[in-house]
Amino acid sequence: MAIKNEDPKRSRSRLIGNIFLLIGVGLFIFNIFAPQLLSNQIPRVPYSLFIHQVQEDQVARAFIGQDQIRYQLRSSSPDRPGEVLSTTPIFDLNLPQLLEQHKVEFAAAPPQGNNWLGTLLSWIIPPLIFVGIFQLFNRSATPGGLQISKSKAKVYVQGDAPKVLFSDVAGVDEAKAELEEIVQFLKTPEKYTSIGARIPKGVLLVGPPGTGKTLLAKAVAGEAGVPFFSISGSEFVELFVGVGSARVRDLFEQAKKQAPCIVFIDELDAIGKSRTSGGFYGGNDEREQTLNQLLTEMDGFNADNTTVIVLAATNRPESLDPALLRPGRFDRQVLVDRPDKIGREAILKIHARKVALDPSVDLSVIAGRTSGFAGADLANLVNEAALLAARAGRSTVQMQDFSEAIERVVAGLEKKSRVLSEEEKKIVAYHEVGHAIVGALSPASGKVEKISIVPRGMAALGYTLQLPQEDRFLMSKEDMEAQIATLLGGRSAEEIVFGRITTGAANDLQRATDLAEKMVTTYGMSKVLGPLAYQQQQNGFLGVMSNQRFMSQKTAEMIDQEIKEIVERGHQRALEVLKLNRELLETMAQKLLESEVIEGESLQEFLSQIKRPEALVAA
Ligand code: ADP
Ligand code: MG
Ligand code: ZN
Hints:
Signal recognition particle alu RNA binding heterodimer, srp9/1; Rossmann fold; 4 domains; five-stranded mixed sheet; 22 helices; 50% helix; 11% strand; disordered N terminus; binds magnesium ion
């Protein structure tokens, strides 16, 4: 569906260039090796033998060259000429004297016969090689070939692809509504220009990876039925200064010819990074030139009233150069965010159209269990479930396939190959049950749905799956404290049961500490430090990137102290809960060791027996 527009003339000239290059290299190689091949027919002897033969008066004549001496021995009989030998000379100033003493006829070696060719080639070959290497690099950058300014933009023309439409995108309704208008601009520009309205030129799609930005851009082109030029910002970042800007010029030239059309620049941040930020080397020059060219082009086609709309996508808007966001450039920003539960269900529906779904599958339940998934994750999930069903030999995809697929996406692929020792298994079992028991008392972080000591992914030896029942956008201080306690539940269980701790809790501790730090420095949840943000958030939508606030040594110490206290409180709380439920901890851990997994009703049955400490009942 992507047409690469390469014209035949260019590829012919490239072919000719290549042939020349081949001939050149061939001659070059010949020139290097030919003299050696020729002289190889003459027996080569050590220099010491040559000297010896001279001293023995056996040598008749010698031709002395820079790197070779050829000499002829005196003939023993008149009808047979003397043998010709060669040797490699060493630097020896006394040689002429020695030769004279022994009556050897000698002369400097005549220049080699094909030397003019060699000289000529030594002038021609190096530039040829240079050009060749240059071309090679350039080829890997531009499939277009010899001409370096060739745009690499792919064109998606309407009609030849399975057209992407707005109905293929879901869960991003606001973004769709905004882009709906762009489609109108492209379809009937006169309607707007006739009353003097300026059609927006640049629309920036902003959002996390995999939320459907590229998909939306294609859908705009599909709906409007216009050509779609697509290029990725990272492709601009080239080896040679000047190539990127030439490419931008070329891209817009093509686009203007085909107007109305869409130019889509994916990963805009690769070229649009703030010109003042970072970078040690002059390598920024290239990006800067490319960016400047882009700005020039966008300002330029204002005047000639062509309908070229530039869509761009980025997941790092805060790093963009402010110049890009000025009116008349990317003056419209459309937020493409992760979908909510209803959005996720709609996206699942779109992707489930392609697979044979069992009627029992309830997509809304799956949507509920996939909070935080982006569109691409959901597409992947459906595919993963279908693969599992196929592997199991089922003809339709069932709910159990989805459950398994969610776990795979969440926790990484199952790794049965990793074998734990009995002792390790025991520790992991108590550790995970500790998480589960403490976690069950803090519903804010979700319902405990599964405990497993089957190792998964890279790091987790076991895991406790706690899935949120609904989307949560706000967390209270209590929720966060409960979450910290849950994270410390694993380590606390190890402490209580084995009286010692292992390295298995490192990740838990890291997360608990991070959370505590956020509470203090970002959310102002500390009584001691007050509602101040000590660490500025970086979330400013299109805002300027903010620096960390300067703070006094004393404040820094207080923050450390406060973080430590929050984590320690969580630790104490976990210990308290687990001590109170020591028996349950024991039975659940034994059950887990036996079956490796506890889930479903039996898990809920266990969890319903948890005793709540007094302090928590009151709270
Ligand atoms: P982005 O460009 O934002 O990183 P993509 O547009 O490349 O994300 O999304 C990758 C794939 O994920 C799409 O091709 C599509 O199959 C799926 N996808 C992502 N978002 C959505 C969505 N909102 N609706 C339907 N499918 C989506
Ligand atoms: Mg993309
Ligand atoms: Zn843990």
